[in-house]
């Protein structure tokens, strides 16, 4: 780089540094002003929205108070009586209900007692958390909520009590669109209500929203500027999260204010300032460059001659002009030119000899390279390039005293090293190939053994119950790996008894599968000695815990169903509680019995519990692989989602279809996520007592002793 160029570059960098510092200070000041403006805009929008929302809630509160007064004091918690009084109160106060679009009364379980709307709007306006808050606080609760995917409403919820005890909740609601219109008029800008996922539900100018397409932040306020590509307008988007009834957020309030004129003037001023600064910088640097070029022109002429001489061009001469330092440089360059001419004549002879050697070696190396694989060919070509290049200090450069023989000796030394290296690499590759083949064979054998073990494990699970008109039962299990630790079983034993068990062994894979097989066999064997579930589980626990060196354990639910009476005696040893659904009734959880997992500690006592299954009742047993299934967002399936699924099952639906529905719901929820645990599910529907005497078809002590007598040689 020339000296004048370095000076110009140095001054340019210094000027740019000063300019950058000034621009950064200005940008920092502008950012501070923007932050203060954003804080004021957010606070103003929040305050205006709260005032208008409070007015709407107070209006709905007056409507609710009118209904409460028309309803009068409540002295009975009977749903039918409460429903009749609500209808009468609504009819008597119909003139005062114009302020509300929806009127709804639900009990504490969110069962609808009254609604003035039909269709989808009949579902409860309040969710479980909001309803619990109203019942707990015993005061009016109002605010904004999203009652369906396409609407926001303003609600006011009032508790209804009998002798100080809340028995129901009165809810009045109104569409939030008029409130949003009032806000837009008062704020002076179009406004929109957006879900937490960024979807616009309602707004005063949908066309503007479609053109702007702003990215709405979740659960925090923000102010930003948008450029509309359609008409080149500048919009100021202010986003404020909107709270719901229980302290969370139900959506975002977004306003779009047209600031084209204001922000446009600011941007024009900024662009003009940058243009002036840029023009000044270019003019200053141009003047500096031409001044330095004229001052250094004599020195550059001398440098050009030296550069030509260094490249072997001896025909260039320097004009002996100037005086002082410039004249001294010219004399020195002339001496250097004479020496360069003499050196060039000497090197011409040496160069001819070197080229003859290079041509011979090049032909031989190219022939060798064509016989080698890619890496070896690349190495030989590198040697060839080194010989042809012939830089000083290269190990293949011929010694002046030995000439061509020295060059060939160095070449042979390099080739010997190449051959030894290729041989060693070949031996290593052969060894790695043999090891890979052996490993692949072992892996294939292990995979085949695991597949056989999986088929054996699934084959020992019961496929169907022997002919029995009292119950409809079906089970299904999908392991997380080739084999798993979950299992289920159901079998007839004794006189009119059906045993059903679902269990989950700690861990997964082969150890869990072995422990599962032992547990299943021993549990079924314990029914030879007792029909009480607690006795069977205690005996099982004592046997397994005695030699449990691996410290494994199993959680299980074991129940014994009397097929004639519907009585289910059961023990829950640290397992997920089953679900029971009676026709026309909500799903309920089977109470736990307080027992710990089996094989944790010997000598444990397990308590019995019982429940009565009515005709048509459904009992669903499952492992934690159902409720602890996770989707791709790491969200668990959960107990509530399973309970909702069971609630939607038809009263006459078969158990095979029920287990298929459970597994299908889990797969759809996972959305392709990897299965983390074994999934097991058993559905049992009690069909009532049979009309014919029960004949045991297997299992239990009686069947076992009968089989022993039949197969005995003495018999």
Automatic annotation (TrEMBL):
One of its GO terms (molecular function) is phosphatase activity. One of its GO terms (cellular component) is membrane. The keyword 4Fe-4S does not apply. Keywords: Hydrolase, Membrane, Transmembrane, Transmembrane helix. The keyword Transport does not apply. Residues 705-715 have a biased composition (Basic and acidic residues). It holds the Pfam family SpoIIE. This is Sigma-B regulation protein RsbU (Phosphoserine phosphatase). The lineage of its organism: Bacteria, Pseudomonadati, Pseudomonadota, Alphaproteobacteria, Hyphomicrobiales.
């Amino acid at each position: 780089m020339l000296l004048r160029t370095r000076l110009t570059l140095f001054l340019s960098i210094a000027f740019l540094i000063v300019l950058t510092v000034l621009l950064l200070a200005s940008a920092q000041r502008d950012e501070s002003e923007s932050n203060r403006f954003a804080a004021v805009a957010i606070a103003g929008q929040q305050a205006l929205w709260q005032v208008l929302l409070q007015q709407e809630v107070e209006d709905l509160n007056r409507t609710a108070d009118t209904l409460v007064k028309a309803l009068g004091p409540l002295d009975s918690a009977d749903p039918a009586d409460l429903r009749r009084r609500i209808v009468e109160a609504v009819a008597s106060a119909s003139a005062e209900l114009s302020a509300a679009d929806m009127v709804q009364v639900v009990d504490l379980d969110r069962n609808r007692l009254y609604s003035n709307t039909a269709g989808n709007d009949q579902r409860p306006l309040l969710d479980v958390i909001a309803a619990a808050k109203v019942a707990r606080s015993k005061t009016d609760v109002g605010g904004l909520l999203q009652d369906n995917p396409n609407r926001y409403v303003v609600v006011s919820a009032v508790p209804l009590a009998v002798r100080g005890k809340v028995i129901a909740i009165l809810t009045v609601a109104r569409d939030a669109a008029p409130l949003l219109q009032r806000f837009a008029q008062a704020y002076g800008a179009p406004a929109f209500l957006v879900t937490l996922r960024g979807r616009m539900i309602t707004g005063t100018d949908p066309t503007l929203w479609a053109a702007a397409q702003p990215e709405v932040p979740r659960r925090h306020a923000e102010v930003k500027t948008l450029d509309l590509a359609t008409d080149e307008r500048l919009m100021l988007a202010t986003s404020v999260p909107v709270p719901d009834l229980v302290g969370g957020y139900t959506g975002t309030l977004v306003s779009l204010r047209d600031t084209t004129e204001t922000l446009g003037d600011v941007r024009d001023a900024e662009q003009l300032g940058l243009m002036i600064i840029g023009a000044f910088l270019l003019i200053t640097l141009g003047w500096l460059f031409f001044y330095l070029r004229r001052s250094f022109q004599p020195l550059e002429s001398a440098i050009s001659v030296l550069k030509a001489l260094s490249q072997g061009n001896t025909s260039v001469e320097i004009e002996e002009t100037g005086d002082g330092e410039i004249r001294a440089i010219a004399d020195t360059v002339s001496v250097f030119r004479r020496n360069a001419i003499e050196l060039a004549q000497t090197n011409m002879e040496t160069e001819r000899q070197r080229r003859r050697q290079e041509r011979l070696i090049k032909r031989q190396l190219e022939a060798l390279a064509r016989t080698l694989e890619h890496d070896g060919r690349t190495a030989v070509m590198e040697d060839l390039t080194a010989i042809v290049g012939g830089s000083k200090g290269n190990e293949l450069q011929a010694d002046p005293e030995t000439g061509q023989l020295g060059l060939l000796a160095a070449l042979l030394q390099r080739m010997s090293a190449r051959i030894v290296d290729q041989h060693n690499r070949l031996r290593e590759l052969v060894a790695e190939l043999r090891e890979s083949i052996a490993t692949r064979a072992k892996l294939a054998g292990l995979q085949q053994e695991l597949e056989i073990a999986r088929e054996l494990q699934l084959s020992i699970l019961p496929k169907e119950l022997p002919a029995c008109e009292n119950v409809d039962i079906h089970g299904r299990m999908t392991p997380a790996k080739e084999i798993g630790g979950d299992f289920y079983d159901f079998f007839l034993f004794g006189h009119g008894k059906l045993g059903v068990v679902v269990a989950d062994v700690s861990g997964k894979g082969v150890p869990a599968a072995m422990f599962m097989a032992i547990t299943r066999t021993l549990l079924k064997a314990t029914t030879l000695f007792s029909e009480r579930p607690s006795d069977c589980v205690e005996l099982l626990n004592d046997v397994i815990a005695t030699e449990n060196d691996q410290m494994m354990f199993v959680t299980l639910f074991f129940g014994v169903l009397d097929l004639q009476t519907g009585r289910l005696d059961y023990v829950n040893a640290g397992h997920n509680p089953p679900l029971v659904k009676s026709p026309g009734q909500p799903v309920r959880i089977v109470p736990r019995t307080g027992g710990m997992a089996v094989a944790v500690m010997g000598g444990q006592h397990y308590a019995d519990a019982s429940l009565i299954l009515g005709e048509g009742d459904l009992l669903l047993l499952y492992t934690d692989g159902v409720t602890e299934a996770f989707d791709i967002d790491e969200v668990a399936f959960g107990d509530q989602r399973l309970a909702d699924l069971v609630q939607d099952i038809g009263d006459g639906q078969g158990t095979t279809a029920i287990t298929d529905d459970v597994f299908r719901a889990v797969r759809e929820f996972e959305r392709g996520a990897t299965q983390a645990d074994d999934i097991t599910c058993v559905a049992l529907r009690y069909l009532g007592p049979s009309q014919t005497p029960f004949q045991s078809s297997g299992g239990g002590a009686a069947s076992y002793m009968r089989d022993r007598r039949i197969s005995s040689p003495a018999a």
